[in-house]
Amino acid sequence: MDTPNRTRKNIALLVLAAGMGSRYGGIKQIDGFGPNGETIMDYSLFDAVRAGFTKVVFIVRDEIKDIVREKFQPKLEGKVEVAYVVQSLDKMIPAEYQNAERVKPWGTGHAVLCAKDVLKEPFVAINADDFYGKDSFAAMADFFNNDTTGSHAMVGFTLKNVLSEHGSVSRGVGEADADGYLKSVVERTTIVKENGKIISKEKEGDRELSATAPTSMNFWGFRPNVLDVASEMFDEFLKTNHDNLKSEFYVPLIANQMIQTGKGKVKVLGGGNIWFGVTYKEDKEEVSSKIKELIKKGDYPEVLW
């Protein structure tokens, strides 16, 4: 595989693969979408290696850890350092906040924190079941290689391009300032298309969203100092949310807190030119078709590894 080293610095890719996939009806992280059964993760790993990333950390549930290792370790051997971290319901959760009835993972922010001990370099956190395209990885590698401000980063995607035709989706909808830094990002958990409008269904009522809002598809670039901020936040989150069996600690909450308290800035990067993902089983055929188009265009070889 052609892997030009675009970055002079160590960068880790943190692959969030511990989600339950309840709406998909299967383990979508390891389902095949490419012409030879490639997973969406395969394409992200390929893009990261060719952009010059030096480490891959998989965040997994215990029951799929061996499957993930068996599937990806041989492909990454000799190319990057690889680590596996289990996100469990009791990891980093004090005994008094644990609940035997909880089955839902604690969210993407908790997943990132589970990898705290293996992250000493800048890292990029992504969803295992989202296809981000090579430009996203190149943009993040260039950012960490050249940025001198100590900022964090988010690849921004246009809201209207990251919805599903098959039901509601959850998205971190952002707002940037004139200098391209994130002012805020809000996790809107039920976004639908209705009558030509993009609507967020909320307790207070329907909220119309801008079609061009810079949106987080969970393609975040962080420096390791974010982990201390996130740890403090998660402690506070648990105090008020441990009794809510569906509560989740999202990465956008961390970004917002840093911005609002002045503990960090987040640059909104370009590069979010392609995105597609699988929320519902009905999305699979469309995703496979789009991958075929990218192979035909020359963005990816027919055989990745």
UniProtKB/TrEMBL annotation:
Any one Gene Ontology molecular-function term assigned to this protein's record: nucleotidyltransferase activity
Keywords per UniProt: Nucleotidyltransferase, Transferase
Domain Nucleotidyl transferase residues, every copy: 37-188
Top-level division of the source organism's lineage: Bacteria
InterPro entries recorded: GlmU-like, NTP_transferase_dom, Nucleotide-diphossugar_trans
Signal peptide: none
Keyword Ribosomal protein: no
Keyword field contains Nucleotidyltransferase: yes
Name this protein carries in UniProt: Nucleotidyltransferase
